[in-house]
What we know:
2 domains; Rossmann fold
Amino acid sequence: MRYFSTRGQTEPVAFQDAVLMGLASDGGLLIPESIPQVGDKLGAWAGLSFPDLAFEVLSPYVGDIPEADLRRLINAAYATFDSEAVVPLHPLKDLYVQELWHGPTLAFKDVALQLLGQLFEYILEARGEHLNILGATSGDTGSAAIAGARGRNNIDIFIMFPEGKTSPIQELQMTTVADENVHALAIDGTFDDCQAILKSIFRDLPFKARWHLGAVNSVNWARVLAQVVYYFHAYYAAGQKPLAFSVPTGNFGDIFAGWLAAKMGLPITQLILATNENDILSVFFNTGRYARGEVKFTISPSMDIQVASNFERFLFYRLGENAEALRGAMESFAETGAFQLDDGAPIDDLICAQAVGREETLATITAVHEEEGYLLDPHTAVGVAAGRALRKGDEPLVCLATAHPAKFPEAVNGAVGAPVATHPRVEGLAGLPKRSTPLPASEDAVKAFIEAHGRS
C-alpha cells in the first residue's frame, strides 16, 4: 500500500515513510491509494482478540513490515492496557458505551499512540535514525503521546499545550514525566494556535528535514488507522449486528476512522458527530458551511477546537477525490476563515451532527449516574446526549467513551454531587514535581526551543 497527499503534490510513499512523514510535504494529509474491502472477511474474524483483530484490520494498509514483526508490535502496544478486551463495551439501558480509556493515560488516544510509539521505535532502529516528534494537544493527545515515546533512545518529543486551558489532570500527566527526552511546552494561546504553529513548522521543509521532525497528532495516518480497529471490535462485542455510533468529536480523527471502517465494509448505519459549544463541524454537516469562530472554553476541553485537522481527509473524498478542488477549498478557508459546500448533494450519507451545551452535558452525567450508577466524563456525556437525540433506527447504538471520568473531576463530581471521579493513576500524580517551558504562541519561539534541545 502506498500513500499520497490530499493536495496531490507529494510523491507517493510506503507505509513506514508515511508514519515518519506525518504531515505531507505539500501541507496535505496522507491517505491510502485505495480503501481495502474486508466485508467478506467479517465472519472469519469473529472471536479474535483485540490484538489479533488489529493485525487483520491493519495488515492491508501496511505491506512493508513483516507479519511477525507487525504482530509483535501490536501485542506490545496493547499489553499496556488494564482490560483484557482492551476496549470493552459497557451496556446502558438504551445504548452501549465503548470504554476506550483503559490505557496508560486513561484516554482513547492511548489506543493509537501506544502503537505509534512501537512503530516509531521499530522503524527508527531499522534505519539507524533519530526523530524529533512535534505535537500539539488540547489535552489527551499530549499525555498519550508522551506515554508512548518516553524513555525511547531514538526519540525526543516536544508537546505544545495551551497553558491553563487543559484540565489540571491532563496538564499533570504531561508535566510530571521526568524522562529527559520529554519536553512539555506551555503555549500562551489556544489549541488552535498550537496546531497552527505545528502545521506551519511542518511546511518549512528544510527545517523539518534538518531536525527529522515527526508527527503524533491525528494528522499522522497511523493514528487514524489504529482507531479503525475499535469500530470492528464493537461490531463483534455487540453480537455482529449493524451498529450506529455516536462519537465525541474535536479534531475529526475518531469519526473519520469510523467513516473509513464503513467504507471498508463494516455495517455501520449511522455516525453521529457530537460536538460541544465549539460547533464548527456540527454547523458544517447541517449547512455545508465551514467557518472558523472564536474558541469557547468548556468543561469538555479536548473538544475546544475550531479547526479540525482531520477534516481535510473527509473533504478530499467528499469532493470526489479531486486534489485541485480540495486545495481551492483549503486556500479559501486559510484566506477568509470559511468556505461553503453548495453542490446540492447531501453532505454525507452516514454522518449527522449535533452540538451539546454545558447544561445538557452535566444533566446527562447526572442522569446516567442516578439511573444506572455509571460515570461518564464530560466528552462522553456529549456523545451520549447527541446519540440519544439523533439516533434513527433500531440498530444498537455505541457511544465512544473517550476518557476516564477521573480526568475531569470538577465537572463530574459537581454533576453527581459527590467525590466519585477517582482513579489510582490520577491520585498518584499528586505531589510529583512538574517540568514545563512557557513559550509565546510563536513559530520562531518553538523552532528555537527545538534547535536548542533537539537532536539532529
